[in-house]
Amino acid sequence: MAKHIVIASGKGGVGKSSVSAGLALALQRDGYRVLLVDCDIGLRSLDLILGAGAALLFHWGDVIQKRCAPDQAVIAAAGGLSLLSAPSDFEPAYTPEAMRELAAAYDGEFDYILFDSPAGVGLGLELAAAAAELALIIATPDEVCVRSGQVTADLLSRWGVAESRLIINRFDAKSVAKKKLLNIDEVIDSTHLRLLGVVPSDQTVLFRMSRGQLIGAKSKAMQAFVRIAQRLNGKRVLLEID
Ligand SMILES: Nc1ncnc2c1ncn2[C@@H]1O[C@H](COP(=O)(O)OP(=O)(O)OP(=O)(O)O)[C@@H](O)[C@H]1O
Ligand SMILES: [Mg+2]
Question: In angstroms, what is the span from residue 137 Cα to ligand 1's centroid?
Fold first, then answer.
C-alpha cells in the first residue's frame, strides 16, 4: 500500500506546491513510484510546475464522478512523475470519504501518494488530508507563517492525520543572522513539530520550477529535497544549512 502524505501550511504562497514537486522528484529518482495529487480546486498549479499543462484531459474529480477510469486521469509529468490534476470547481461528490476511495484506487500502483493542499483551513484542506497518515507542514521562517503551520497541524491531528512533520522553506541564513527571520530553533519551538528538513531560498525554484522546468540535481533546493526524501525513508541524514 502507498504512503499517503498531505503537504499543508494554512498560509498561501509558502511553497507547498514547489516542495510537493521537489520531494516527488527526489523520491522518484530514488526509485519510488510517486503520484502527485493537486488538491488546489480552482487554483491548480502542479501541472504548470511539472510542465504538464497541455496534457490535461481529466482530473481527479472525473474519477470520483466516474466520468473516467482511474488510470485515464493520470498525467505523465516532468521527471517521470505521475500527476492527478485538480478540478476547477467544488462538487458535492468531493467528500473526505470519496478522497479515501480515490487514494485506494491508486494504492497498488504507487509507493507514495502526495496530496498538495490549497491555502486555508477549509474543505479543500480537509479533502487533501482525508487519506493521509502523515502531514508535512511547510513554514517559511516568519511569525505569521509559523503560527499558521501550528494551527494547521492541530487541525489535521483532529481530523485524524496521525503525524505532522515540519519543513522550513525559503530559509536564508543571512536574513536569520541579521535577525530579520526566525532561526530554526525558534520555528521548531513555535510549531511544536519535529523537523524533517530545511529547504533554502533558491532562485532556481522561482526561475525554473515555477515555469515548468526541472531544477538541476546540484541546486541547493534539489539537494535539500533529496535529503528530505531520504529521511522520509528512514535514513539518518545530517541537517545541512548554508
Ligand atoms: N525554496 C524556495 N526558494 C525560492 N523560491 C521559492 C521557494 N519555494 C517556493 N518558492 C516560490 O514561491 C512562490 C510560491 O510557491 P508555491 O506556489 O510552491 O507556494 P504554495 O504554498 O503552493 O502557494 P499556494 O498557497 O498559492 O498554493 C513561487 O513563485 C515559488 O517559485
Ligand atoms: Mg500551491
Answer: 14
Question: For ligand 2, a single-atom ion, which residues have Cβ within 5 Å?
Answer: 16-17, 45
Digit-coded pLDDT (tens) for 181-220: 888 888 998 889 999 999 999 988 887 877 777 888 889 9
Where would I find the H helices in the chain? 16-29, 46-49, 60-64, 96-106, 123-129, 143-158, 173-177, 184-191, 203-207, 220-232
Single out the residue of 61, 24, 193, 39 nearest to residue 116, CA to CA.
39
Domain at 3-232: CATH architecture: 3-Layer(aba) Sandwich (3.40)
206: CA distance to ligand 1 center in Å? 7
Residue of minimum CA distance from atom 11 in ligand 1: 206
Please state the atom number of ligand 1 nearest to the C-alpha of residue 21. Answer: 18
Is the shortest distance between the CB of 12 and ligand 1 below 6 Å?
yes
User: Is the pTM higher than 0.85?
Assistant: yes
Structural domain spans, the chain: 3-232
pLDDT in tens, 139-180: 999 888 899 999 999 999 999 999 999 999 999 888 888 888
Q: Give the integer Cα–Cα distance in Å for 211 and 134.
A: 29
Residues 6 or more apart whose Cβ sits within 8 Å of residue 42: 86, 87, 88, 89, 90
Residue 242 has pLDDT above 70, yes or no: no
pLDDT in tens, 77-97: 888 899 999 999 999 999 999
